Amino acid sequence: MTASRLFDLLIALLYLTGSITYPLGLVLRRAFLKRIAVWTSVAAFALHTVDLAVRFIEIGAVNLQQGQFYMSLLAWFFVLVFFVLWSRLKHDFLAMITAPLALVLFSSSLAVRTQVLAIPEHFSALWFSLHVGTIFVSLGLITMAFGAGVAYLHLEKIIKTKAKMPGFSKDLPSLETFDRANHWAVSVGFPLYTISLMSGFLWASFTWKRVISWDPKELISIVIWTLFAALFHQRTALGWRGRKPAKTAIVLFVLCLVSMVGVNFLLPTHHSFRP
Amino acid sequence: MNQEIYLVGLNHKTAGVDIRERFALSDCDPVATGLVGDTGAVSEAMILSTCNRVEFLVVGDSDADIRARVLRFWADHCGQPQGDLENHTYCHTGDRAVDHLFTVAASLDSMILGEPQILGQLKTAYRNAVEKGAAKVIVNRLLHKAFSVAKRVRTETAIASSAVSISYAAVELARKIFSDLTNHRALLIGAGEMAELAATHLLSAGVRDITVVNRTLARAEELARQFNGRPMPFEDLHQALLETDIVISSTGSPTAIIRAKDMKEVLRQRRNRPIFFIDIAVPRDIDPDINVLDNVYLYDIDDLKEVVEENLAGRQQEAGKARGIVAEEVGAFMRWRDGLALQPTIVALLDQGERIARKELRKSIKQLGPDPDPQMVAVLERLAKSLCHKIYHEPISYLKRRSQEEGSAQRFIHNARRMFNLDEETVPEEAHLDRKGGGQ
Q1: Which end of chain B is more exposed for a tag (fewer CB within 10 A), N or C?
Q2: Which of A241, A243, A244, A248 best probes binding to B when mutated, by most B CB atoms within 10 angstroms?
Q3: Separation in Å, CA of A5 to nearest CA in chain B
Q4: Among B49, B5, B9, B4, which Cα is nearest to B29's?
């Protein structure tokens, strides 16, 4: 137990190093600090993968009802999505938001007491992994859109008000790059979110013989989906660009945080991670 | 005989342009003209001559009056009276000369702080000195270091990262809005020197093409030819705004030619693709209110001037950091220079030998098993030590003999240091320069 605890701490420490060194490298204009940040994130990701694999073998199955495993897997997915986006967008500003998020999620996974939620019977593994897999990727994308949105609004304000550009902002990529991150997140994330929601409701209708049970998690998910759908529509059909989608993505992310942390841990719901 | 580093010269701060042009020294061979010779007081020289400075980097006898010698050579070579030089030149020696060279290389002594040209000019000057055989141990090392100092300053400070001309500031702003200029088109409305300069900058920054709109179509066609773009009549301005993303406007129109309420319709048709207006005209061509619209960015001439002024102030600030780097590197260089004496080199050589001997000894003792025979260990120790001393004996006594000779001591010590890698350095990028013979 202590050995695996130490291993977990090492991973958290590596994510922490990544979280600190990247912004530091930006401010101090030291390329090697940024490289250190990226490589520690890579190392943390590798160890994290091992950690998850070991846990998987220990438990014998992907136990997503267990809060610790869930959060840890979510953090892992974030880093994975980051690497994919990184290869697409070719800018490591993504490192700035990914490492801290992975750190927060991973360390909160450590804080969660090992408690296994009672799983309803007839839980088809395939169905369930569809439900959770799609939500993970789409949450990762929403997070990216959030980071890109904050950066977009910051840079746009500087350009619009013709304010003095501090050294940090000079290294930021262009507005177009941030907007493209938003475009990606919306056009891929929304369909995935929809699949996740649909699979959940369909499963509920098969197993519990009712589509909706007015559970807090279900309600907030529908709110998020509605906002996401509006954003998707405005972006793809009406050609929204820049400011408005950036702001919407930020609101979307905050709602997701409320849903993930607030609802899963504090309210009585069938998604609860409460001990 | 003691060798010393000298830097004699004048620059835009000490001499007016009339003096600078009279004493310019392009294409001067220090060896053929007799400044550098085997028997003379000057053993190495490099001449840097640009429109803002003429400088001699000289390694010579510390007992001779190098300054007077250089000034005489300089005045004779230019066919001008030496008296005209006296009041405009500076002469630095030792670490101050090194400091000056590094400062120049890092573009901290330039008229426009951080401008990149000086480094290229310095490289050319150095290449000339190498090809003429006027650069030897010290100048070689000095210039390699100067180049790496310049590189450090560029990467570790923001001294050269911002635009300091109005047209270039416009390009930099466009880069902050669009990720890849090759996907975007530019539109030039009207004509004028600064607008054309901005268009040229945009083209070299990779913008896809340039559309030219003018009240007189003939003028538009002429400009379009110049930029390899396409002309459009003024009546089609609305259409042009749909097809382009960066607009430079500088017409003589007394009223605004693009108004906010027209722009809303344009934006709708553009499906909100961002558009960047650069308004260079006075009075302004573009309604300032359009900057309020989403995905529309407008900079007028005053805004751009402000950006440039801020950037210049920023460079001043970064220069302080850069001077710190220069001071650090001057220290490192002077330490290397002091190491070129015989005694420290011998000590370093023996140190290195003993270090290797001890390391190998440890390895061998390990191979003897967990509990080695103490007698055997003692024998091995003696063997290692005496091997090291015997091997280093010949190079050391050779160095001692050579250092009695005039002039050649430093070269041999330097070679020995490099051969045994006593300074533990990696080969610098420009190292091949000093191995290139003449005739290139």
Answers
A1: C
A2: A241
A3: 37
A4: B49
> Does B307 contact chain A (CB < 8 Å)?
yes
User: Left, alpha or beta for B183 (phi > 0: left; psi -120 to 50: alpha)?
Assistant: alpha
Tell me the CA end-to-end span of chain B in Å, nearest whole number: 34
Domains of chain B: 3-156 (3.30.460.30), 166-311 (3.40.50.720), 342-404 (no CATH)
Q: Are A241 and B161 an interchain contact pair (Cβ–Cβ within 8 Å)?
A: no
Among B412, B415, B435, B411, residue whose Cα is nearest residue B423 = B415
Residue pair B438/B131 in contact (Cβ under 8 Å)? The answer is yes
- Percent of chain B past pLDDT 90, that is, above it, reads 17
Instruction: Sort B37 into a burial class: Cβ within 10 Å, 0-12 / 13-18 / 19+.
Output: exposed
User: Chains A and B: how many Cβ contacts under 8 Å?
Assistant: 57
pLDDT tens digits for A83-106? Answer: 777 766 656 666 667 777 777 777
- Burial group, residue B380, by CB count within 10 angstroms (0-12, 13-18, 19+): middle
Tell me whether the omega of the peptide bond preceding residue B395 falls within 30 degrees of 0, making it cis. no
Residue B91 annotated in active site: no
Task: Tell me whether residues B178 and A174 touch, CB distance under 8 A.
Answer: yes
> pLDDT class for B439, splitting at 50, 70, 90?
very low
The verdict on B299 touching A (C-beta cutoff 8 Å) is yes
Instruction: Choose among A164, A172, A241: nearest Cβ to B295.
Output: A241
**Could you report the predicted ipTM of this complex, rounded to two decimals?**
0.71
Distance from C-alpha of B197 to C-alpha of B33, rounded to nearest angstrom? 43
Question: CA-CA distance, A80 to A85, in Å (whole number)?
Answer: 9
